[in-house]
Design goal:
Blueprint: H1 3-13, E1 18-23, H2 31-39, H3 58-65, E2 70-75, H4 86-107, E3 117-118, E4 143-144, H5 165-186, E5 189-192, H6 195-209, E6 212-213, E7 223-224, H7 238-244, H8 246-253, H9 256-266, E8 274-275, E9 281-282, H10 290-305, H11 312-325, E10 328-329, E11 332-333, H12 354-373, H13 380-396, E12 398-399, E13 404-405, E14 407-408, E15 414-415, H14 422-427, H15 433-440, E16 449-450, E17 453-454, H16 470-473, E18 476-478, H17 481-491, H18 495-503, H19 508-511, E19 518-520, H20 539-548, E20 551-553, E21 559-561, E22 571-578, E23 581-588, E24 591-596, E25 599-605, E26 609-610
Parallel strand pairs: 3-4
Antiparallel strand pairs: 1-2, 5-22, 6-7, 8-9, 10-11, 12-13, 14-15, 16-17, 18-19, 20-21, 21-26, 22-23, 23-24, 24-25
């Protein structure tokens, strides 16, 4: 048996899913790939002996590879439960590295000399010695494949050698320039004396643009996906797209957002958690926040485009069907277990919860407002139901001793969870002055606030707070929540606290390429095994426009401005489009200027204005 066959047998015994030999002379090296490394989105650049620049220049890597005649390319497949099975992804990465270690033990006895490359850096040591000291295990050091060679994936039977990285790079650049032109035409620009605010605003916008997937085969083109930079969640969760990103989506897509909404209505949110690229429903269950999210997108479309009134009957019917389906107790709906709600690791935020019951009340008020605009007279019953829900939340879900909300289980058991989700009840107009005071008292360091953001569970909650799942279980947060909280605080007139909350997120303007799915609040980092981007990152941009700057478009299409001071920071919002008008806003200290189509209309102290 020749030596290559023996190596292939070792690969087979190592349980690789696929393997095959490649002529080294056919390998391609692209400086563009090394440039991506230098952007350090994986945080391994200049931090590991396995990655650039420690492995040498691209020319040095090619020279090292060319010492050999053949290369064995191998891979292994891992089954995941779904596109959000982050634990499975992380476990697969670790297992693959262990498999490569086992493969190395086999080929050590076969080959006198070889170069073994592996995936995604090293990770063998908790802290790499680079660059201050030599590698602790040089014989076990596997340089990253990504730092050497571009492995091009093609359709079966097609020759990757016919591809041209330069052309692909130019195509990508052209596509991005087109997308940025769209953004510059429809999204206002921000200029500020705070460069941190500027960078954060831009990073938030980019995070939304990168989630617009363009393909004529998709149900809409572009298709606003939840994320997808790492190949996962290229689908639409109403919670992300229509909940956190509705206003940005409508600003970018305009009336095209109506087509997207229609497909979302028909994909089956009563039985599925998300919409796939072909418009079909996908996922294991209905999600508690989907109905409000769709209603939020619909109302945004009505107010920002003036179109879509003909969909009201279908929207209302879908809402009423969910109302009839869910069990009700004292005007509150039972939203079930964790799989339908926040997916916390601990139990507690379940069944009769303040949010999304508070969102239900908002939906009833929205139905009344729309019905009234359409000439219906019998709308009082919707407003009565909205207030009945809010009154029940105050009476049955507020714990007067703990001065916090509780969640009630069907057996009457009450569970107090210090979750950031409780602030949604505040945003939906449920809380009286006393409740508001107590909720806001928890927005301080060591509780919900950290140096680099907010925590999904307050640090004071010893029963539910933990560090393994930041987005909903503590130690960090889902990236849409912090900016949304800041916007809520501006809307209730707590400007100083709102600025404090939002500014804790400014590190993401420079430390990450895109706003990630979740991040820690005690350090400027994100979990390694989570989504690298999320469309809900646009919540930062929206907090600036609709919270700090105070733009508010009502259902009748009228525009109100209620700007806020920003801790002595000067900021300018230029190019906010409202119908045929373009609005420019300048806030400097306690003074403001408002121009409409280039003509100065208002100058003086900050105050609420109708345009």
């Amino acid at each position: 048996m020749d030596r290559l066959s023996e190596v292939e047998r070792a690969a087979r015994e190592s349980r690789f899913s696929e393997y095959g030999s490649v002529n080294v002379q056919n390998l391609k090296y692209y400086q563009e790939i090394r440039t991506i490394c230098e952007e350090n989105s994986c945080r391994n650049y200049a931090a590991s002996w396995a990655c650039p620049p420690a492995i040498g220049t691209l020319a040095e890597c090619r020279e090292r590879v060319n010492r050999y005649r053949n290369m064995l390319l191998f891979s292994r497949k891992y089954a995941l439960e779904d596109s959000f099975d982050f634990e499975g992804m992380h476990a697969g990465l670790k297992d693959f590295k262990r498999t490569v270690d086992g493969f190395q033990q086999k080929i050590d006895t076969l080959l006198p000399m070889y170069l073994l490359l592996s995936n995604e850096g090293c990770g063998r040591c908790p802290q790499c010695t680079y660059p201050g000291a030599p590698c602790r295990y040089p014989h076990l050091l596997h340089h990253s494949l990504e730092g050497y060679i571009a492995v091009i994936l093609t359709e079966a039977g097609k020759d990757a050698a016919k591809g041209d990285m330069k052309l692909w790079y130019e195509d990508t650049l052209n596509a991005w320039e087109k997308r940025l032109r769209l953004a510059s035409q429809r999204i206002p620009s921000l200029h500020s004396s705070s460069k941190e605010l500027e960078q954060y605003y831009k990073r938030s916008l980019i995070s939304g643009l990168v989630c617009l997937w363009e393909n004529d085969a998709y149900v809409t083109n572009p298709f606003p996906a939840t994320s997808g930079m790492d190949g996962g969640s290229i689908c639409c969760y109403p919670w992300d797209v229509a909940g956190y990103g509705a206003r940005m989506l409508v600003m970018l897509l305009g009336e095209q957002s109506i087509s997207f909404l229609k497909h979302m209505l028909s994909c089956g949110i009563d039985s599925h958690i998300c919409m796939a690229l072909d418009g079909s429903g996908s996922g294991w269950c209905e999600y508690a926040y989907s109905m409000w999210s769709i209603f939020n997108l619909y109302c945004t479309i009505l107010s920002m485009t003036g179109k879509g009134w003909e969909l009201f009957g279908e929207i209302r019917q879908l809402f009423e069907a969910e109302e009839a389906r869910l069990e009700e107790w004292k005007n509150l709906k039972n939203y079930g277990r964790q799989c339908n709600l926040l997916e916390m690791r601990s139990c507690g935020y379940e069944h009769y919860v303040p949010s999304p019951n508070a969102e239900r009340a908002w939906c009833y008020d929205a139905i009344a407002d729309i019905a009234e605009k359409m000439g219906e007279r019998d709308v009082f019953r919707y407003r009565e139901k909205a207030e009945a829900i809010r009154a029940s939340i105050r009476e049955n879900l507020w714990d007067p001793e703990r001065k916090w909300f509780r969640c009630v289980h069907p057996d009457g058991h009450g569970e107090v969870v210090y979750s950031i989700q409780m602030y949604d009840a505040l945003r939906m107009g449920t809380c009286n002055a006393e409740m508001t005071k107590h909720l806001l008292s928890h927005l301080e360091d060591g509780k919900f606030l950290g140096e680099y953001g907010v925590s999904s569970i307050s640090g004071e909650d010893e029963q539910h707070y933990e560090l393994n799942d930041p987005d909903w279980s503590g130690g960090g947060c889902y990236s849409g929540e912090g900016p949304e909280l800041a916007e809520t605080l501006w809307q209730i007139g707590r400007s100083e606290l709102a600025w404090d909350v939002l500014s804790r997120h400014f590190w993401m303007g420079t430390k990450v390429p895109y706003i990630p799915q979740e991040h820690f609040c005690d350090s400027p980092m994100m979990p390694e095994n989570r989504r690298a981007n999320i469309i809900a990152g646009v919540a930062g941009m929206q907090a600036v426009l609709f919270g700090l700057a105070g733009f508010q478009i009502d259902l009748d299409g009228s525009l109100r401005l209620s700007p806020h001071a920003a801790g002595g920071v000067r900021y300018e919002i230029r190019g906010f489009q409202h119908g045929a008008n373009v609005i420019d806003l300048v806030v400097d200290g306690d003074e403001m200027q408002i121009a409409v189509n280039g003509e100065l209309r208002v100058q003086g102290e900050i105050r609420e204005m109708s345009i």
